[in-house]
Amino acid sequence: MRLHEKIREGMIFLFVAFWLSGCSPITENNLIEEISPITFLSISKADEGKLKVSTIFPPLSKEDKIVISHEVDLLKEGIQKYNFNFYQEVKSGQMRMLVISEELGQEGIMSIVNTLLTDPDISPRIYLVIMRGNFEEFLESQLDNAENFDYSFYRMLKHYEDRNQGELTVVNLHQFKNLLYTPYSDPFLPIYSIQGDGVNYEGTALFQNDKLVETISSIDDRIFQLINNNHYLAVLPIREFEIVLGHVRSKIDVNIDSSNSTIFFTVSIDSKIEEYRGEKQLFDPQELENLKADIETYLEQQTYEFLKKMQELKVDPLQLGIQTKRPFSKPMEEEEWIDMFEKMYMNVKYNVNIDPLTDANSRRPNF
């Protein structure tokens, strides 16, 4: 009897010890010589509803690299298949990027996002990127030309995230999840395209829930960076007036009237002139004021058209619906907000402040 009690107490102790320590009864082998930590995955559509999962092996060692692709039904199945035909065990704990094809994004990526979120080995800080074009073929073409292309791509994304450079959209898994599951918001991701021997930043892909519905580029993407993403642009070229504004910082004030019929969108901008090739004499204060008025009118019209496009698509990446919340009243349903948003009138106002032209070299001390 005492023996049975000791065995039972021993089993209870072992269970509690494993539970408290968070350890699995099976210890994973993580010897660096025997594992191959992948740094990125590329996912695209395959035939018959399958996924095509690709990456570069070996990702870190100096051996000759190859691109390995598998067509699978489930994302985790792809990682399992890598273990079947590679001499080292594949680990996903060092994954830094997930590259998703544009076609797959248009079909929806919720299952992929949920799979990544529930994997404790995968960091929520991995970057999500939409790719236009055949990324697998591009990777194979780069093995001889730029074998560390994946690392260079990752460093570029990290640079623009850390320094808040305001030039392009950078979104990680945690941010995408918040935008996807938070009421009154729709997620967005950066979109790149394959052009020749490189990948070019195209703009920002807008999602309706988890499905890609539109890509904004050029001046629309510049405005998106100013009014939502970074609120800063290093340079803002405006070809219509042959001018480049630099160090553009914005402050946004958004209000919805009590009848929920009009959104008042006020944008205040501080900037300086980086380059000008027009005919105005900008040392003349009146000429500079006329140019500022022209730029304000132009940005108001472009922002108005951008907001109208969001209304037509029924997406809200700016989270404007939050402005409908009132003290002591029940928040409206998200579907109700989108229906209301589609019919609202947009009142856009820009206040542009431009530093007058000065000779920067005259401020420098003489040595």
Automatic annotation (TrEMBL):
<dbReference type="InterPro" id="IPR008844">
    <property type="entry name" value="Spore_GerAC-like"/>
</dbReference>
<protein>
    <submittedName>
        <fullName>Ger(X)C family spore germination protein</fullName>
    </submittedName>
</protein>
<dbReference type="Pfam" id="PF25198">
    <property type="entry name" value="Spore_GerAC_N"/>
</dbReference>
<dbReference type="Pfam" id="PF05504">
    <property type="entry name" value="Spore_GerAC"/>
</dbReference>
<comment type="similarity">
    <text>Belongs to the GerABKC lipoprotein family.</text>
</comment>
<keyword id="KW-0732">Signal</keyword>
<dbReference type="InterPro" id="IPR057336">
    <property type="entry name" value="GerAC_N"/>
</dbReference>
<dbReference type="GO" id="GO:0016020">
    <property type="term" value="C:membrane"/>
</dbReference>
<keyword id="KW-0564">Palmitate</keyword>
<keyword id="KW-0449">Lipoprotein</keyword>
<dbReference type="InterPro" id="IPR038501">
    <property type="entry name" value="Spore_GerAC_C_sf"/>
</dbReference>
<feature type="domain" description="Spore germination GerAC-like C-terminal">
    <location>
        <begin position="202"/>
        <end position="354"/>
    </location>
</feature>
<keyword id="KW-0309">Germination</keyword>
<dbReference type="InterPro" id="IPR046953">
    <property type="entry name" value="Spore_GerAC-like_C"/>
</dbReference>
<keyword id="KW-0472">Membrane</keyword>
<feature type="domain" description="Spore germination protein N-terminal">
    <location>
        <begin position="31"/>
        <end position="193"/>
    </location>
</feature>
<dbReference type="GO" id="GO:0009847">
    <property type="term" value="P:spore germination"/>
</dbReference>
